[in-house]
Design a protein that fits this description.
Number of domains: 1
Strand content: 5-15%
CATH architecture: 3-Layer(aba) Sandwich
Number of strands: 11
Radius of gyration: 21 Å
Oligomer: single chain
Order of helices and strands: EHEHEEEHEEEEHEHEHHHH
Low-confidence stretches: none
Strand order of the largest sheet: 2-1-6-10-11
Number of helices: 9
CATH superfamily: SGNH hydrolase
Largest sheet: 5 strands, parallel
CATH topology: Rossmann fold
Structural class: alpha/beta
Shape: globular
CATH class: Alpha Beta
Mean pLDDT: 92
């Protein structure tokens, strides 16, 4: 008797190469995937302005990075503090000059990471947005500013689809060969309510598929379905019952690797993972001989991998 359903292994024609540079932006799950890239020494960057959940704010941040040569900084002052509503809670300061400098520095540092990326992974978290009442602009973060300054609403499927199309246009205008992959975050936004979370995810999913079906160069990776229909168990969530735990993320990562890497590179990733684990392994009460032997093993493995893939930072 079979007590679970297993999702069909996805397959994508456009593969990720070991030497590629990848850029992750979006919900918390984008960080989970980015960390897996880090653990395999793959070149990647994530959320330069912090975690961002809704598609409109993701588009705004991508626009901001691509507008590197003519940046604009919009700040909001509440009492004696300045906030950037287009970025996460790290982007607030008592000094307007300091905050502007931080934003401009981030744009300068991350512009190359986005424009030189071979792959961009966009993880949508929620279709619920907050609009600043002063100008009705959708914000990325409310910064714990009193809620009566914002209007909360649910984006329509049309709004989401149009926003995703605009994101694709922005990225492909800069780099026609870029590989764009959408994912829907399995993180549950239960603060909005159970029904509200389901409605939000449904609108995002419908919008993603509308866009993917009309763009041959864009892909969808089913992280959401893997958690909802394959794992389908709270064992794979953290104690908050909202965020995926390490075991769940690892399960998704195994499917991700098989979907996006060629067989040779897939096998090679295991060697990279072995090096990562060896580097981070701490011997219990090691004697000098054991420590030297372990260090020799790590250095030998690193040298072999560096010789095979000199473009990686190992």
């Amino acid at each position: 008797m079979n007590f679970k359903t297993t999702i069909k292994q996805p397959f994508f024609e456009r593969k990720i190469k070991i030497e590629d540079s990848s850029f992750f932006i979006g919900s918390c799950f984008s960080i989970n995937l980015f960390q897996k890239f880090q653990q395999h020494f793959l070149r990647a960057n994530v959320n330069p302005f912090g975690t961002v959940f809704n598609p409109v704010s993701i588009k705004s941040q991508i626009e901001e990075l691509l507008n590197y040569s003519n940046p604009t900084v919009s700040l909001t002052k509440v009492e004696n503090r300045f906030y950037s509503l287009n970025h996460n809670s790290l982007f607030s300061d008592g000094s307007k000059i300091e905050l502007e400098g931080k934003i401009l520095s981030t744009i300068k540092n991350e512009y190359q990471n986005l424009t030189k990326a071979n792959n961009v992974f966009i993880t949508l978290g929620t279709a619920w947005v907050y609009q600043w009442k002063v100008n009705q602009k959708i914000v990325a973060n409310c910064h714990k500013i009193p809620q009566d300054n914002f209007t909360k609403r649910l984006l329509s499927i049309q709004e989401i689809s149009e926003t995703l199309q605009e994101i694709i246009f922005l990225l492909q205008s800069n780099n026609p060969a870029i590989n764009v992959v959408f994912t829907l975050s399995p993180v549950r936004h239960l603060k909005d309510g159970f029904n509200e979370n389901s409605l939000s995810k449904a609108r995002l999913l419908e919008s993603i598929h509308q866009v993917v079906n009309s763009n041959n160069s864009v892909e969808y990776f089913p992280a959401f379905e893997i958690f909802m229909d394959d794992l389908r168990d709270y064992r794979f969530y953290d104690s908050d019952m909202v965020h995926p735990n390490d075991i769940g993320v690892e399960y998704v990562w195994e499917i991700f690797k098989k979907a996006f890497f060629e067989d040779d590179d897939f096998r090679y990733l295991k060697n990279l993972e072995s090096l990562y684990k060896a580097q981070n392994h701490r011997l219990i009460n090691p004697n000098p001989i054991q420590q030297e032997k372990h260090n020799h093993f790590v250095n030998q493995l690193r040298t072999e991998l560096n010789n095979k893939y000199p473009k990686l930072t190992i």
